[in-house]
Amino acid sequence: MNDFSTLRSDIGDAVKALDDMAGKIDAILFQKKETEIKVP
Amino acid sequence: MRKILTVVIVIFICSCGLNQKHIPEWKDTSFRQLENYKVNFLTGKENVSEPHFDKAKKAASGDNLDLNFLARIYLNKYALHIAALEDFDDSEFVRINKLHPLAPNFAYYNFLKGNFTVVEDNLLPSQYSSFIQLVRNKDLTKALQEIPSIDDPLSRLIACGIWVKYLLYDENILQTAINTSADNGWKRPLRAYLNKLQKYYLDHGETAKVENIKTRLELLKK
Is the pLDDT of residue A30 over 90? Predict the structure, then answer.
């Protein structure tokens, strides 16, 4: 039972870290790929 | 544990792939060339800027002729000229607008041309929503408070350009434009506003200030 809750906690941490990383990668990718021409 | 992590990573990679939008190459090229044109124009690299504009235009007017995209390229060019107190030839936009009229583009065009009575305020970019009303009321005092509050420096400079070009101005508005240009290293508008300020001081008989501006202009040439 104890092992199971540790595992769940580890997975939670891993998912959170990946989510943060995904956000950063997304920002970099889409910042570079902005192509809509706006008037200043 | 290792298996679960592998599954999570695979899902993550797949979702990244799904999120990516396909951007046509011509659009990407045109956008990048226009950005290069803007930087070179403002920093006073006249010889370098025009080829970038031509490439931006060419990319947008090839097989994938997107008239809205092309119209906006021209509007960007005209806006830069206004920001640098220069005249512009609007014939290309007028031609495109006849073929493919779009109200927001036409509103912005009228704004740049000084046709303020026909500009539909709600169709202008939001940074000008208060400014356009002050322009119509010719309220310079309030405009001097409003213009510095425009976050984007290029839009701030365009607002200065519109005011100086079409309405009665004072040295404060010219100073706002000079500071904005100098802060961003934009030599071309900086030169234009310093010349304008020099003429303003000449007309008002402030000879000491004229000399001061003359020195700044000489330093700018070096």
Answer: no
How far away is chain B from the Cα of A30, in angstroms, using its nearest Cα?
Answer: 8
Contact between residue B76 and residue A40 where contact means Cβ atoms under 8 Å apart = yes
Q: Which residue has the tokens 């999570």?
A: B8
Contact B190, B178 (CB under 8 A): yes
- Nearest-angstrom CA–CA distance, B48 and B3: 55
* Chain centre to alpha carbon of residue B145: 20
The more confident residue out of B213 and A3 is B213
Burial class (CB in 10 A: 0-12, 13-18, 19+), B170: middle
Kindly determine whether residue B21 and residue A38, on different chains, have CB atoms separated by under 8 Å. no
Which of B8, B31, B105 lies nearest to residue A15, judging by beta carbons? B8
Q: Is the ipTM of this complex over 0.90?
A: no
B138 Rama class: left (phi>0) / alpha (psi -120 to 50) / beta: left
Yes or no, beta carbons of A37 and B31 under 8 Å apart: yes
- What is the distance between the alpha carbons of residues B189 and B46, in angstroms, rounded to a whole number? 12
The answer to whether the CB atoms of A37 and B73 lie below 8 A apart is yes
> Reduced to 3 DSSP states, what percent helix, strand and coil does chain A have, rounded to the nearest 5?
80, 0, 20
Look up the pTM and report it: 0.80
Tens of pLDDT along B91-105? 999 999 999 999 999
